[in-house]
């Protein structure tokens, strides 16, 4: 495990309890014993009410504790605020990709670019990190600091606009130039850092935030990152899989901070016995926006089980994003292209048993015009 995250034994214990609760689907009432504190924390992470002895039956199902109440979309899509537009518009769509796999191995995309602020999965963590912060400091006037490769920054800029916070964002030099314009339009202060990965300067952002009296949310270590996907994303997908009567055999997702794939792993491996989890990372020595290699340091993936991590080159990521655009008619980002490339590699290698596979598509392709322009001539030559 990365040295930064060693020794978080408390988190490990909470996740073990959460996994057990998911596996059993029931919780005994809590009587105030010392060991009940871990159960309470796990239930809060799962979005469940606490069954206290004397106020609840001796044992309750997760459904009785409000497990699925978080996933209650507005059927007529009418919202009282742009913040509601985010979380009351979940689940994000799950769609069959008919150009991938075959009649026996079927691919489904979870379209996270339907989130409204950054058109990406990072809207979830931007919202939840701010939500958790305000629970501790209600009514505070804050300046938010964050290292980002664009999407989390856009999500935080949106939350800053909604809540009236100042937002300072720090971008690596390798990220597309369009990000500066997009983030500035949304009201954030943007600074470029002469490093290639966001994780390389999170300590610098932490130090600066303390110096200037700001709050460094730190998506790389903030457990709200993992928590929002366990409480919302995983439940949504579970309900969608059940509704469509899918024979779910695997989930393929990119590794960036590792929040969403780790939460999906904990949830589905606890609730189901035969779901495989496949992570996707850039090939050695390469950069794909939104994902990175495990050894660069990420937190939650070390607390869960990932069956295989697949390497993908930037050229493969772009080529498969283009393939999805030309065969399915949707413009996806480069991390989505990488996820598609990994699925195709697993499929062509005969590693996928018959059934349904969910590909988590983190964001839209509009931010990546520079990368598409660079690689399209190479793709056309093939």
Largest sheet: 6 strands, mixed
Content-based structural category: alpha/beta
Number of strands: 12
Q: Tell me roughly what share of residues is in helical segments.
A: 40-55%
Write down the CATH topology of the largest domain: Rossmann fold
Our measurement of the CA-to-CA distance between the termini, rounded to an integer number of angstroms, reads: 40 Å
Strand/helix succession: HEHEHEEHEHEHEHEHEHEEHHEH
Mean pLDDT: 94
CATH class of the largest domain: Alpha Beta
Rg calc: 20 Å
Total domain modules: 3
Corresponding CATH architecture of the largest domain: 3-Layer(aba) Sandwich
Number of helices: 12
**Strand percentage, roughly?**
15-25%
- Overall body shape: globular
For the largest sheet, list the strands in their spatial order.
3-4-12-9-10-11
Low-confidence stretches: none
What this model shows, in words?
The chain is an alpha/beta fold. It has 3 domains: 3-65, Conserved hypothetical protein from pyrococcus furiosus pfu- 392566-001, ParB domain (Alpha-Beta Complex); 82-119 and 223-381, Rossmann fold; 122-216, 3-Layer(aba) Sandwich (Rossmann fold). 41% of the residues lie in helices and 17% in strands. The protein is built from 12 helices and 12 strands. Strand 9 (248-254), helix 9 and strand 10 form a beta-alpha-beta unit. The chain starts with 8 loop residues before the first helix and ends with a helix.
Question: Topology of this structure?
Answer:
Layout: H1 9-24, E1 26-28, H2 36-46, E2 59-61, H3 82-87, E3 94-101, E4 105-111, H4 122-136, E5 143-147, H5 151-163, E6 166-172, H6 178-185, E7 189-193, H7 202-212, E8 215-216, H8 223-244, E9 248-254, H9 259-271, E10 276-282, E11 308-312, H10 314-328, H11 334-348, E12 355-361, H12 369-381
Parallel strand pairs: 4-12, 5-6, 5-8, 6-7, 9-10, 9-12, 10-11
Antiparallel strand pairs: 1-2, 3-4
